[in-house]
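dumping the sequnces here before i forget
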Amino acid sequence: MGANGMAPVLLIGLDGATFTILDLLMAQGEMPFLQEFVRQGVRADLRSTVVPLTPPAWTTLMTGRTPGNHGIIDFIWAEQRATDHYFTLYNFRDIQCETIWSMVSRAGGRVCTLNFPIMAPPPPVNGVVVPGLVSWKHLRRNIHPDGLYEELKGLPEFDPRRFAWDFGLEKKAATGVPEEDVEEWVAFHRHRERHWFDITSHLLDREPFDLAAILFDGMDKMLHIGWRLLDPRYAVDLSPTDQRHRELILGYFRELDGYLEKLCRQAGEKARVVLASDHGFGPSHEVFRVNTRLAEQGHLFWKKVDSADEKTRASVDRLVERHFVLLDWERTTAYARSTTSNGIYIRVADGPDRPGIAAAEYEGFREGLRQKLLQVKNPDTGQTVVSQVLTREEAYPGTCNGQAPDLTLVMRDSGFISILDRSPVVATRPHIEGTHYPLGVFIARGPGLACGAKAGCFSICDVAPILLHCLGMPVPGDLEGEVPAGVFSSSHLLERPVQKDTDTAPPASYAAAQCAYSTPQEEEETILNQMRALGYLE
Amino acid sequence: MSQHDLTRESILTDVIAILNDMTQDWDLEFSGGIAGDTKLVGDLHFESIDIVQFIVAIEERFQRRGLPWEKILMTDGRYVDEIRVGDAAELLAQHLGGTA
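..and the predicted 3d for all of it:
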């Protein structure tokens, strides 16, 4: 690796990785390479974004900016209007900041970025982009540069259906995998990771890159379904079926360890290798049905649907399956939009006699709602379930927070909220489920990096500055992270202190995205009508 | 090609090229060749996510966002069941200044 005189860097993303499990597996001898890698490098807890979620967190890692500034809040982008509610999916054109791939490209470096989310349509970087979260049907068109897809088709066993994103399967992960499907589910993701490994290995063999990055996202899937099988606090008296599932999941980690070893060897001894996750993982014990609570308090009204209308009924069933909320927008004043954002949106009236609360009442309404949310208790334990309720300004400071919720909930078990119309408001889960926790992992090894060190805890915003310094580049002044103490050795920093740079460049999509967010009312309605027509909107 | 050079015919050609490229690996049984009267759902088995991608591809090709797609995707406030390739091309021609 290393194409342009830069010190080569390999970034390996591990979606959902947590030391809670990795330390255990290393101690048990399941991940011997990782254990040696940690011994020779520096490790730290990595604090995720305010809501530890894949799209905002990886975008923060890729930009060095917080979600309030890069603009990616959730999987879905939505807009509320007086009588309707509109959804679509975020894409690369919605990122409001320059990515590290672009920064390195501008400096003449060669980059390779594989399976990172929100990277489609792919930007024209100096190198390679194979985006994540893209269906196999559209992968060809979303790979940069042209012609690379045809080249990858020549790889043995290449099958885009088996490594690209599948919306139906992702939904499965969110709603729970039935016991009878677990084996197939784990096998699918083990095969998928091998595909991504093969692609990465091929590209590293083909040409030198200054910054090569691959995101393995199977660990998140394994931990969602397998937490109770891996965490020794819960993995007791396992049934034969559970034991078989546990062994299959452990197989995933063993294979991943092998991929890490091979990729590090390919990168070479001169390369600096950084492992990082977007968030951590841990057990969730209870579920908070926020919309049910808001309905009880008179803030939310469910939409009544005429069940005699077969076509409407089918449409509604489809929406409910997708977890979209069906609300009476004329009367609803507060609601949770998605289970992943952990956010509550307040509808503010855009004029007299319009739906929503009056603008003058907003602050008082929001504060009242916040206080009431903090008092919600689990009847089984008597304990409050919400540990923090953050306002938009607190959770998403920045210039691009227009899509952020008015209130963001931090649950005491770090779980995600439920948005469905079900009772009771709070319930203890029948089984422990894995959920996203704020502390992920950072591990790095290579020339100049601290050896055998623990660097405490730092922010996911710090990863981009660290990568840039690894590459020998100055750190742009507008990045929100820094190169934390303890990552590099003292002797390295004496010889090569961290250099500051001018601000980042606006991304190519910036102007267009700004237009999309600030079009005149008529044009904005047009965009929203378009999305409704696409079936993503209610 | 600048937008001033666009004609209805060239726009339709570009849209068909996008669709040919997009669907070439889909193993479709449709064999007539994509043309103006090809149906996205009936012939090319489009789902809603495919329509999103189709629109993104068109926006990238013509460097325009926010076109009023609802004019061909909705009728009387309801989603249409079918869209023809020519409908998309005609919409583009109307809003990108395509000449006859």
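Chain A touches chain B through 26 residues (CB under 8 Å).
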